[in-house]
Amino acid sequence: MTQTPAVESGDRSHALAPVESVAQISSVLRDADPSLDPRLAALARRAAADGVVLLRNDGVLPFAADRRIAVFGRAQLDWFAVGYGSGGDVKAPYSWNLLAGLRDVGVQVDDELAAATSAWTAAHRPATSAEWGRWPHHLPEMPVDDELVTTAAARSEDAVVVIGRAAGEARDSLLEPGSYFLTDAESDLLDRVTAAFARTVVVIDAGNVMDLGWLARYGDRIAGVVLAWQGGMEGARAVAAVLAGEIAPSGRLTDTIAATYDDYPSVVGFGDPEATVYAEDVFVGYRYFETFAPDRVLYPFGFGLDYAEFTQRVVRASTDADRIELEVEVANVGTEHSGRQTVQAYVSKPGTALAQPARELAGFAKTSLLAPGQRERLVLSIDLADLASYDDAGTTGHRDCWVLEPGEYRFAVGTDVRRAEPVASITLDEVRVIREAVEAAAPDPAAPFRRMTLERDADGRAVVGWEPVPTATVDRRERVLDDLPTALEPTGDRGIRLDDVAAGTATLDEFVAQLTLDELALLARGDLVMDSPLGTPGNAGVLGGVSASLRTKGVRPVTAADGPSGIRLSSYASLLPSGTALASTWDPALVRELAALHGQEMVRKGADVLLAPGMNLHRNPLCGRNFEYFSEDPLLTGRLAAAVVAGVQSQGVAACPKHFAANNQEAFRTRHDSRVSQRALRELYLRGFELCVREAKPLALMTSYNRVNGVWAHYHHDLVTTVLRAEWGYEGCVITDWWLESAVDPDFPALADNAYRVRAQVDVLMPGGVKTDDGPQAYADDTIVESVARDDGLTLGELQRGARNVLGLVLALAPVIDARATAAASPRRRCATATDASG
Ligand code: BGC
């Protein structure tokens, strides 16, 4: 079934007319919505700029003030500020394009060329709305002939060619021209421009990594390459500031850029309708390339150039049995430019019993802005326990444990995974068990596969080997039955309101014990439709007080709104840098600050739960939603996600990290099965979530659409109850991604659909209606209530447990929701609105 959310459109008409000057912004903001905070826009610009990755620069950048620049490529005007779908569909008050941004920052652009490009682009602009999931991958390029290019070359010194690539939910990139590859028109443009200009700078405005193998064709005629990502409404202006040298580029790659697509270890089976075997196991991204194929890398993980010239020196490396502390002094030894350096620490593990990647990111830190001559000391503190590996096969003698193998842990420090020099090591004499866990979410014995492992050839070189993946041995039925919660004795309505719980005059259990079966079932689903009338207009859904009886008891309706790059409601909201752009800053402190202002905007706009951050790993560069996600690395992902959650939640509203777990392709996303070893799950796909949950305690969390080792994530007792809640101690509210796939619980045939889900402790179906072959329907199924009466059906205790999780979220949000209600009811506010309207 095609998913057709009620409030999605892909319509970007509100953002198509770009602002052309900073002066214009204040009037645009005033007209659009005076409550939009210019400080958020300013910080978004800084974050977008700090995420710009400079891949090549022969000295052409920053552009000297006296040089005239010919800018080619329609994307300078039709700039992709964000990807499509729930993560991008924000009603932005304005959006910069690159041409306006360059002019704003004082770059002398070739106006004649700009006029020609503007005229052509305006005449060839496609319809503004795109059908859900059928977004364009690119927009056709303006054809150029030699005359246009050579006359432009006569007027200008240097050229910029802008390549634009969209990204979007429900649509992966394709191995086709215009998507992962250049189109003929783009190649032709590059051919002609690089022939006519001595120096060309390529700016890539893309949500996801695209093929860059073509750069080699042009040799040093391409003098600069800038990965702009999609930086939101201020993104193009931020890129312009970097090109002009007003802001120093300091972004670093969060993914490896390989020589060709086929070099990635995840290509086999990507996009399959039924199942994808994650055969590369823990060798994702740089973990694979640095171990087995270093020569297949165009740009390594962590890479990015600066205008400034830095040195760095480890001034102290202190180790004890549990940790290593590295103090690194970074100096800007250049004379012209300021800049920020990111210091990265990598660990090489012994790999005596477990196959280990050559290097793994173990810590990182970024300097402040250093002027020429300035230096700064950074301290990277790494707990050995955080470097433990998950032994899912018992090779170390400790099956289902997090372990540190005996041997030497070597640490290297540098500016990317490749350029990191050994600085210290710690040797463990014997295996150390860091944490005991239990087998969970293991591959199905009925679908075994072989996973990548590391072998050595006769010369000791790492070569790819294969071994059978350990499959599940646990009896899930028994596990669930052993863990059923005891029910609270139902008391009937004692007049306890949720406010009494907030005030401490009653306990949450006393409140829950009063609820009827119907009320418990209502708490287990959201309101039936997107854009629920119970919430702020344009919401993605509402949960909590979805019935009059619940509201009478003080259960407030909670508004959930997308998403990672801004608040997706009917009203205007700030369009912020996409996940990859933010992650490329390698700056959790900056991201937290931005998220705090974002949280303030949520309070003003009436969004209680932000359906963000998106934090699935970039397993394959074609995944359509990579733009929303952060990186191929779980540490970077986890730290960035924790920063978003902490920032948002510092304002009294909630974040909802998503999609738990292993949502790494968009094709067939509601049915395909991610088949993955427990070890890869624990160390990579769950690791970011674990870091985020432990560090920032998100109030909500969203499951994914896909299956994980045969079980849909929204039914996954092992993922949600065994790992997330029991092992990590998560106490928040777990919600589905929008709707669920109908299924009967194989271990408890009395349970189907929502009853099956509640048993997993996925608390709330969002929104609350039923998904049929004709699309989402605004009625609820009866599976929960019906199942309670059956043998082996849901127990009252399970429903009460879920209700507690939901009510915990409502309680946490009540102050913000109440303040909003008070403000809306205040006579002063009503009066001001009336005056505004008449004026
Ligand atoms: C997406 C979620 C999003 C939800 C609500 C789904 O299509 O996968 O990420 O939060 O819609 O808009």
Automatic annotation (TrEMBL):
Transmembrane segments: none annotated. Keywords: Hydrolase. One of its GO terms (molecular function) is hydrolase activity. Pfam families: Fn3-like, Glyco_hydro_3, Glyco_hydro_3_C. Residues 341-417 form the Fibronectin type III-like domain. The keyword NADP does not apply. Belongs to the glycosyl hydrolase 3 family. This is Glycoside hydrolase family 3 C-terminal domain-containing protein. It comes from Agromyces larvae.
